[in-house]
Amino acid sequence: MKRIFAILLALTLTLALCACTPDNGGTDTNIGSIPNEELIGNGILSNFDLEDDMDASAIQITLADNASKANGEGVSVSGNVVTISAEGTYVATGTLSDGQIIIAAAKTAKIRLILNAVSITSKSSAPLYVSSADKVVITLAEGTENKLSDKNVVHSGSDADASAINACLFARDDMTINGKGKLTIEASANGIEGKNDIRICGGEYTISAVNNGIKGKDTLVIAAGTVNVTAGKDGLKSDNETEADRGVVTIVGGTVNISARDDGIQAVTDVTISGGSVTIVAADSKINCDGTQHISDGCVK
């Protein structure tokens, strides 16, 4: 983690005079303002973070009220709760009016879940919950619209409570979201939250959250995509105060639009913006960081 933080700072200084550029226009194969090979070579992203193909060999999960099913192993269904428990690639499609997908696998497992026109509402918890894995990649299938909603859930625990599930899309381990589809989130607490690292590497997001829009406790990286956040508290947030190299928000590409009733971007250790376009309307600070800020000219409006 310390190595990644130092690399991000070096990349920021290198690009300090660069103007903002929109994400991934024309035939450019890079996902953001910094070349993919540089992001991968420096350990900021991995090849796994960027996998967004449909994968014909993936296990198919069909979501339907009281009738969900899968065509392979590693998936169990109990009522309207679908649990993925084995390493592999899965494609989910369909609707649950009050249900949940849970990823609960070994701590060594790498899991990729492709959302292919999925709509999940939960009246009791997070519609999509990563309980355990080594790393999870959520892919938004190209041309699809996906939706997660927990807007009627009353969350009882605070963000400081390690056992609480306080987000519509919640992960206890590292999670990346990529793809060329759309995801709408309607959240009664946080929109997207990860207890470790969150990376966004593509897709179009419309997030409406009563609390924070996107929260990565250790790090939050946006490398590509269009991210629209309306938040009752902070727009983007990283708040690990116990480790010196964490609590970091980094934007290296994409288009980010934030409307927040507290801070637009809040981080404990560092905020780095070295690419992309960021527009913030905030009742408090556009950027609030007790540590350092490294921002390229013209990148924040």
- Helicity range: under 10%
Poorly predicted runs of 5 or more residues? 1-28
Order of helices and strands: HHHEEEEEEEEEEEEEEEEEEEEEEEEE
Largest sheet: 10 strands, mixed
Write structural notes for this entry.
Helices cover 8% and strands 47% of the residues. It has 301 residues and is mainly beta. It has one domain. The strands form 2 sheets. Strands 3-4-6-8-11-14-16-18-21-24 form a 10-stranded mixed beta sheet, with no helix packed on it. A 6-stranded parallel beta barrel has the order 7-9-12-15-13-10. A hairpin with a 2-residue loop joins strand 3 (75-78) and strand 4. The longest helix has 13 residues, at 2-14. The radius of gyration is 18 Å and the shape is globular. Mean pLDDT is 88; it is low at 1-28.
Topology diagram in text:
Layout: H1 2-14, H2 36-41, H3 47-50, E1 59-63, E2 69-70, E3 75-78, E4 81-84, E5 88-96, E6 100-104, E7 110-121, E8 128-132, E9 135-140, E10 145-149, E11 167-171, E12 174-179, E13 182-187, E14 190-194, E15 197-209, E16 214-216, E17 219-231, E18 236-238, E19 248-251, E20 255-260, E21 265-267, E22 270-273, E23 277-282, E24 287-289, E25 292-295
Parallel strand pairs: 1-5, 4-6, 5-7, 6-8, 7-9, 7-10, 8-11, 9-12, 10-13, 11-14, 12-15, 13-15, 14-16, 15-17, 16-18, 17-19, 17-20, 18-21, 19-22, 20-23, 21-24, 22-25
Antiparallel strand pairs: 1-2, 3-4
